[in-house]
Amino acid sequence: MHVFYTPDIAVSNELPEEEAGHCLRVLRLGMGDEVMLTDGKGCFYKAVISAATNKRCQVKILETIPQEPFWKGHLHLALAPTKNMDRIEWLAEKATEIGFDELSFLNCRFSERKVIKTERVEKIVVSAVKQSLKARKPVVNEMTDFMKFMERDFPGQKFIAHCYEGEKPLLKDVLVPGEDALVLIGPEGDFSPEEVARAEEKGFRAVSLGKSRLRTESAARVAVHTRSVINGCPCMSWDSRRSCRKYLPAMTASLRMSGIVSWPSRKDRNIW
Predict the structure, then answer these.
(1) Which range of residues forms the domain containing residue 21?
(2) Residue 263: pLDDT above 60?
(3) Overall pTM > 0.85
(4) Residue 240, in any domain of the structure
(5) What is the rounded distance in angstroms from the CA atom of residue 21 to the CA atom of residue 34?
């Protein structure tokens, strides 16, 4: 069953224009066809198309299916975008599939990109939410100057990953499962010494992501994946389910009962 992103479904029974176009013109669904919706706020909705024109699609809700959070705590990733936006778009997709809660873009002293269009990133995140069968969409924030970002108060643990010398424990050794966490990832030229000093003044702890020097998008994905492993992997793809079977029942039981996810084939069950 196809999943459509409908953030206003609680107050409107009409699909957004772009989702309606995909539903009617690409998938060629029509009146009476069942669809699955997500509001990106924690719920799936089993619905049936009640009215359809060339550009508009209305639905009737048949069932509301709340989805329990896959992890505890709020993971906020803040990074300086790369010059090549393809790499940031790749990160947004993969981080969403793995699981995180918020993405912020930082304008740092050594940033190669000073302007970013978040609309494109939003679309990629929405697509990844639907593909990975998550009912919660990560928040995507506009770019903010690093020093201005530091003026905000953040709950939970706060980390900064940089390449300067000094004592830096591995992120996996200091993350507390279930707690809110904010991780800062710098540009290709790293944070400036002044930015690192300012972050430490604001209570950020310097951490290492391993012995290798990583690109910005790779470092960000390592941070998200590390948090995912610490909290219990919420992966949704079939390949990932083979390696994290214990999390599958809680994540997909209600979806299967409603027809969003079919039961695995005999071949897949044998792999387990």
Answers:
(1) 3-66
(2) no
(3) no
(4) no
(5) 16
